[in-house]
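input
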Amino acid sequence: MKVVSVCVVMLVILALQACTVRPDEHRTNGEATTPVADSSSTIDYEVEIRRLEPLVARGDAEAEYQLGRMYAHGQGLPKDEAKAASLYAASAAQDNGDGENAFGGCYETGECEPMDLQQAIALYRKSANQGSAKGQYNLGRKYEHGSGVPLDYAEAAKWFKQSAAQGYAWGEYELGLMYDSGFGVEQNNTLALKWYRAAAEQGHSLAENNLGLMYDNGQGILRDTKQAMGLYRKSAVQGNASAMNNLANVYRFGDVGQLVDYKQAIFWYTQSVALDNAKAENNLGDMYENGFGTSKDLPHAIALYRSAAAQGFGGAEANLGRLYQYGIGVDKDYAQAITWYQAGIKQNVGDASNGLGTMYGAGQGLPHDDLVAEKLFRVAVAQGNGAGLLNLAACYFDGTNHPSDPAAAYALAYVAAGLQNAPSNAAGIRDSMRQQLNPAQLKTAEDLIGAMTRQSPTAVLDARVSIN
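output
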């Protein structure tokens, strides 16, 4: 099969594939899932209430805090936030660190009226300075998010370290996240693993998920799919929607020691979708669009893409752009396609950059412009997009925008075919290009491939142009 003529011949093929890049989900730094006080307990509540009430009557600060927690969480007693706040206030008045932290939580959440973030922070600080691991965690959390205090990752890390040193699972998790991301501390996979593991051993679901990701990606540790899946599952059964999606991804794509299992993938994606996880909505939409493990159901797929896009998930926006571009399950509408691709581009989604590039290359709803198309393909390549690599390869093979360079085109196609998210036709395009190279071009291509393993493909191309 000969690779022929203009770039657009390949564009139509490459834009038709759904955005199905396997997403690795770490928890974002939002505060919504972060508790201000520990609510876990395995005690006999009835016995504990009988023990605490006489101590509270005598003004014991620790007992006031403990009984306040039981009222706050409805543990053995009717839930009563006002009573809890009163007990926390009494405990805090006696300089009990955990009582101060819990009382601060009341002001942060509005259980104490009026809601007062600065009063909450003052109480967290007082608690933290007295050595309360919970207060240290909550004060660190405020610096981590710049909530009521200046954003200061180093200050957040300082408090998380103190909290983690006392074995508090939330402090351990947050410290692991700081080392994982390199916020406030130097990025360190070994320490990220250490602190995620410490929190995971206490059953912390977010830590279990992130530790699973490190095993899944071989980040600072040998890849171990079995360990990753076990950790995802532990987290998922605690209701972590991201872990459900990650577990589904392993079943969806398969891995070492795990065959593809679409039924299990659909099960876990569905569980995650029930918790409004946008990535899972997009991934489940892909399953229904393509009929993986289920009957094809385009209306259901489109509804899932729309739901994910409504949450601002760029992969779903790119998929909606693709459907409107080609009229898949909807009326062909280039204006809608452009709108959705542009939304995805704002989220740095390679499929969106590539998709809009194909529209410029084909003059679909936009003036035909090969230069803009190639620019967008290059953006997609920088975002790790396999289809963008192949479209850029087609431009180099056909001599669009610059002299034909079959060796460079083949090198790009070779790299694209080796990606985890490689388009289904990548290997065929690679092999077709190879057949058309002469020995000198093949030798040049092999050198380029080697260079592309060490630096970005576009950087190699640009260096080749400057040398030539």
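quick obs: The domain at 276-348 is CATH 1.25.40.10 (Serine Threonine Protein Phosphatase 5, Tetratricopeptide repeat).
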